Amino acid sequence: MATVKRDNRLTSSQSFLCVGFAGIFSKTVTSPLEVVKILSQVGTFHCKRGLMRSFPLIYQHEGLRGFWKGNSVSCLRLFPYSAIHLGTYIIHLNMDELGRISQWKAIVTGGLAGIAAALLTYPLEVVETRLIAQNCRESLYQGVLHTLSSINRQEGFLALYRGFSLTVLGAIPFSIGCYVVFINLDKLWQENHFHFTSLQNFINGCLAAGVAQTLSFPFETIKRKMQAQSPRLPHCGGVDVHFTGTVDCFRQVIKTKGVLSLWSGIAANTVKIIPYYGLLFSCFEMCKQFFLYQNGYTVSPLSYKLKPGVDQSLGPQELQEVKRYLRNRKIQAQNSSMGNRWQT
Predict the structure, then answer these.
(1) What pTM value is reported for the model?
(2) For residue 52, with 0-12 CB atoms within 10 Å meaning exposed, 13-18 middle and 19 or more buried, which class applies?
(3) Distance of CA 241 to the CA centre of its chain
(4) pLDDT tens for each residue of 262-305
């Protein structure tokens, strides 16, 4: 069974910044594909003719900025989501004394941490869906705060959590998909997981994300429809079916559109996986290299070459204490040497 090893050479705040920067950059670059995916899930007219026709239709009706609708709130949601996710101690409680955790425990406890983070940031996800579903040239919602207050005032507070149960239900097939991929990685590469290269780990992440998201995609589709639907919006928010609840939404979608429509937008989502996780992985590694250099573990912020004589098992604060101790001892030795010279 594969295991995950924490890198204790980064502080919690540095890990948070690495995740935040990598997430914002990768989300912004792949935003057009995310917009097409969500519009396909909601069922708006933009995506009735397939993936490739969606892009010119969005550009024709909303212009270039239509591809970045909701990106600001998506990036804004990333920071509290990451903070809550990293701050959840479930994973650490299941680690052994060496700071390692088995892959299946990392997936399960990571899923629980994700649900906890989603619970507190879910209203921002609803806002993102509403901003993407509307026409940015004829917008009813003006920014994050206006959207939050409008939904709360017109539809009630619970509308900000419409479809949240599907996040919990979708976490089950998502975790199963990740687990199935990761337990077979050793067989796939025909070598021990400890010897995986960065490229192999990137491919592993793309495979796990592809399988997991495909399994959980129907829950994601229904959730987006529930988030977008509102009787107070034109065409009920652009949703292609009308429903009264979660079960009825599943029923109406299958009845009117067919079972395969539960995977509407899967093409855009699949295309997005490689650039998204590629940018996420590379940006995170770039930030990590910078902080490892800043903490004194590497010789350069552009490489992983370790600094000679540095104990890599020490945490950042411990390493600084060792450096401070050695520096003070050197100063004392110099002062002692100068004192002996004066005496002679």
Answers:
(1) 0.82
(2) exposed
(3) 29
(4) 999 999 999 999 899 888 888 888 898 899 998 888 888 887 78
